Amino acid sequence: MRKVSRSSNSVPKPGTRKGAHASGTRRCIACGKFGQKSEFLRIVKTPDGKTEPDPNGKTPGRGAYVCDTQECIGNAVKKGRISGSFKSAVPSELYEKLRNKE
Ligand SMILES: [Zn+2]
């Protein structure tokens, strides 16, 4: 197998299917940057409807990813991107947990 080593920030084609199985690639819900799963903080909506940070990436449920930076976490919270991504309201404790994370 050949490794394709492109410079980062290759722009994905528009019309790429949302939630496609692009191996390991995730997208920040705040700034839209693509990157490896490990670069992001995962937020999960569990099957029983709880929304929580998932630092280990192991909680089953629907995941959303945000850059692990205060800027992106702040934007995700302020712009309602988390609730937008999950199509449901997000409890304020989640915002507190994310904000207090350093
Ligand atoms: Zn971001």
Kindly summarize this structure in a few lines:
This protein has 102 residues and is an alpha+beta fold.
Beta content comes to: 15-25%
Q: Could you please say which CATH topology applies here?
A: Hypothetical Cytosolic Protein, Chain: A
Bound molecules: zinc ion
Percent helix range: 10-25%
**How many angstroms does the end-to-end distance come to?**
39 Å
The helix/strand order is: EEEEEHHH
- Uncertain segments of ≥5 residues (pLDDT<50)? none
What's the CATH architecture? 2-Layer Sandwich
> Using only CA atoms, what is the Rg?
14 Å
Identify the CATH homologous superfamily. YlxR-like
Give the rounded overall mean pLDDT: 83
Characterize the largest beta sheet: strand count, sense, and whether it forms a barrel: 3 strands, antiparallel
Under the CATH scheme, which class?
Alpha Beta
- What form results from the Cα inertia axes? globular
Q: Give the tally of structural domains.
A: 1
Number of strands: 5
Strand order of the largest sheet: 4-3-5
Number of helices: 3
Structural class from helices and strands? Answer: alpha+beta
